[in-house]
Specification:
- By secondary structure, the protein is mostly helical.
- Helices cover about 70% and strands about 0% of the residues.
- The longest helix is centred in the middle third of the chain and has 35 residues, at about 295-330.
- Residues about 1-5 and about 485-490 have low confidence and may be disordered.
Length: about 500
């Protein structure tokens, strides 16, 4: 496409600073997070140790099907915003907005979860952190110290992502190396020093009750596993020397690694002692090693790993959320300011600041909002996963000749399984009476508020009329836009 056609819509570009290990560190670090400490008790209580491990293994299979869709689409369209670009190429502006908006909130929900969690983790390590109660929500006190910790950590994560993707990647890589080294020690201690007898009963409930418990854990899996899709978000910032196909392979490797981590960890924790005694603890994973071995060293290692996982997840999702907002802004689907880059650092600075501001608001809701952000975030991410499965099928139909460095084997079977898995998760979360249904008022109100904000952005979207669809296609897809290719062919 000629340069004159683009004078009305100059395309901001991001710096290419992510290497292979940096991309893996972003994905795996985002997936492991801190939920394995803060939510372990609920997993064990709802499903039992083997039931919870099976829920994660089943969720891993579903995520692998969805990950295969990403593995095909990411090298095909290695663009910031990932799902926004895929949906726009397949369905156009409206559906790209819906998928991108819900995905952005899914990512920001994880960031909010981490902001609330940081106080809980540090309070276990340093009991004096619980100081100066400001107010209570649902019987849970909100401490001034927790708010200050959340604000300080959010400011730090925001600054890293503001100053450049290279800073964020280096931070992530060092933390992942430390996390792996530490977790090998305490997971090994649980498996080698624990007893298989401690996992009884292996699954909670009987008959359909047993399935209900496993399902309750299973439907939250998108929240715990989301993170492999930080690779699509950072694909435009990947080093130019990385073969496109390797982006898809990295997605699949990160899913397999995270699935193994969660399943083995759950069994390791349950083996340390009768899991019913562990599940009621505030941070069950840490309590397990204190209960079994009376070792302050192991407990401190668990908590240190939790803090590292919290920071890696926070950093990865913060980066991903800002890139989705950047893609929507660059395409003039939401206000253009979100799609600008910093003249010195080459980062989507306004999207970064917005994500930081929203994250800072979350701790004001107190620790009881943790589960709400998990469930609402899982729902939003489930919508994005459904969109990716449908987009893969659609692009196979309308763009069969487009070069795909990685192509899912087996035709449409895997994308259809991905769609079915995402639909199952979403249905279980909206059917009244379901054990995993979104609850009133907290979760429904949080989701409704975000959907309403999205409606305001869409209805007031004067920026969408400021560019033609041909210009928008260039802004979102650049040289991967169909018009660009047809024009280039004509010119040649």
């Amino acid at each position: 496409m000629s340069g004159s056609a683009h004078t009305a819509a100059a395309r901001p570009n991001l710096q290419r600073r992510l290497d292979v290990f940096g991309l893996f560190a972003l994905a795996f670090g985002s997936m492991i997070g801190v939920g394995w400490v803060t939510a372990m008790g609920s997993w064990l209580t709802q499903a039992g140790p083997i039931g919870a491990a099976l829920a994660f293994l089943a969720g891993g299979v579903v995520m692998l099907c969805i990950g295969l869709c990403y593995a095909e689409l990411t090298p095909m369209l290695p663009l910031a915003g990932g799902e926004v670009a895929y949906a726009y190429r397949a369905y156009g502006t409206g559906k790209a907005f819906v998928i991108g908006w819900f995905l952005a909130f899914g990512y920001i929900s994880v960031s909010a979860f981490e902001a609330i969690s940081v106080g809980r983790v540090l309070a276990y390590m340093l009991p004096n952190v619980d100081r100066w109660v400001l107010y209570e929500i649902g019987g849970a006190p909100v401490y001034a110290t927790h708010l200050l910790l959340a604000i300080g950590c959010t400011a730090g994560i925001t600054a890293l992502n503001y100053l450049g993707v290279g800073w964020a990647a280096r931070f992530q890589k060092w933390l992942i190396v430390a996390f792996i080294a530490i977790t090998v020690i305490f997971i090994g201690a649980g498996l080698l020093g624990g007893s298989i007898r401690n996992i009884q009963p292996a699954v909670v409930g009987e008959g359909m009750g047993m399935m209900a418990g496993v399902a309750a854990v299973f439907v939250t899996v998108p929240f715990w596993f989301v993170g492999f899709d930080t690779i699509p978000q950072g694909a435009e910032e990947a080093d130019a020397s990385i073969p496109p196909k390797k982006l898809g392979v990295l997605i699949l490797v990160s899913i397999v690694a995270a699935t193994g981590f969660y399943a083995v960890l759950i069994v390791s924790v349950a083996m340390t002692g009768p899991w019913q005694n562990i599940a009621a603890a505030d941070l069950a994973t840490a309590r397990a090693f204190s209960y079994a071995f009376g070792s302050d060293l192991l407990v401190n290692l668990v908590l240190l790993a939790a803090l590292i996982g919290l920071l890696t997840s926070w950093n990865g999702f913060f980066l991903a959320g800002s890139r989705v907002l950047f893609s929507l802004g660059r395409g003039r689907i939401i206000p253009e300011g979100f799609g600008t880059t910093h003249p010195t650092f080459g980062t989507p600075h306004r999207a970064v600041v917005f994500a930081g501001f929203v994250t800072m608001l979350a701790p004001l809701l107190g620790r009881n909002a943790l589960l709400a952000f998990v469930d609402v975030g899982a729902f939003c991410i489930g919508i994005a996963f459904l969109g990716v499965g449908l987009t893969t099928i659609r692009l196979r139909h309308i763009a069969p000749g487009v070069h795909r460095p990685y192509r899912i084997p087996g035709g449409l079977a895997v994308p259809m399984l991905a769609v079915a898995g995402a639909l199952l998760i979403l249905l279980v979360m909206v059917i009244p009476g379901s054990p995993a249904a979104l609850t009133w008022p907290g979760e429904v109100l949080i989701l409704s508020a975000f959907a309403l904000l999205g409606a305001v952005f869409w209805v007031g979207g004067r920026q969408r009329a400021a560019v033609t669809e041909e210009e928008r296609a260039y802004l979102i897809l650049e040289d991967y836009a169909p018009q660009a290719k047809s024009t280039a062919a004509t010119a040649s």
